[in-house]
Hints:
Layout: E1 3-10, H1 25-30, H2 37-48, E2 56-63, H3 72-87, E3 93-98, H4 105-110, E4 116-124, H5 128-133, H6 140-152, E5 156-163, H7 170-182, E6 187-192, E7 195-196, H8 200-206, H9 215-231, E8 235-239, E9 253-255, H10 262-279, E10 288-292, H11 297-301, H12 306-314, E11 318-322, E12 331-335
Parallel strand pairs: 1-2, 2-3, 3-4, 4-5, 5-6, 6-8, 10-11
Antiparallel strand pairs: 7-9, 10-12
Helix pairs in contact: 7-9, 9-10
Amino acid sequence: MKKHVNIPIFLPQYGCANDCIFCNQKTITGKKGNPTLLEVRDTIDLRLKTIKKEETEVQIAFFGGNFLGLPQSQQKDYLSVAQEYIDFGFVNSIRFSTRPDSISENSLNYIKAFSVKNIELGMQSMDDEVLLKAGRGHTAIETVEASKLILEKGYVLGLQMMLGLPGDNFEKLMQTAKYIVDLGASETRIYPVLILKDTHLEELYRRGLFQSLSIEESVEMVAKLVHFFKENNIKILKVGLHPSEAYTSENELVAGPYHPSFYELVLTQIWKDRLGKKLKTFNKEENILIRANKFEINSFVGHKSSNKIWLKENYPNAIIKLDESLIKGEFVIEKI
């Protein structure tokens, strides 16, 4: 199977006229504008130099804004540049992210001449109360209708969700996750809410009207979401924000569950949960051999060896051994 690589073209929130509670419009509008077509070409050319095409499926990915909210002339300009690389065989297809309320027969018909394969919807939640409090400007039913239309037109559907929005809770999160499966999505992204400067959310936070999730709470919730999505064969494209996306270099982050190795913490929690569940049938003083697969040994041992430390504290006579015969996802616990 070929490795998948995205060549990201970042459109900093352009095409989005909405003012979501978590979105830093002042900072965004003060940033550099949309990339020129020359800059897009330079980005693609530079990235292609590092890719072995015969081993890789390459997508040009327009991220960061509401792509279908851009003027159609601008959509055409960007898509035309991407299409040139596809026509010459350097790139396989295109993906972009957009809002549910930007999906229509007209908007999808406009792009059908281009090799768009994946469309990601920033749905964030499927609870109307949460959407209203977040100032999303669309409803859950619009996500349902947009998802159906995307699939009817033959595109691969991706649905993005957030956790920690005002009015949200774990029950609502799981309901949103179930919708992602039921609506026919093939992939998802999971983003914990961060509080950025000059947002409505910061104002609520400063007034004591909103409390962000802790890293520990977020990790525990996301671990359950990841487990659920994997059970339902939903590809997880991303969990948490990359350091550059979290505005950490510009001191824009006020509060929230940001960690540079967030997904590593999540994988650590998943393996700790799996270990803990199986170890309940063993006496804590027994001599135990735990055989782990080679593919996930780092997550098994845990971030900064936290699972190994937890194991030593709770099962002092347990030994971890690498077993190359085990496949990904497998581990075995036995008495010795």
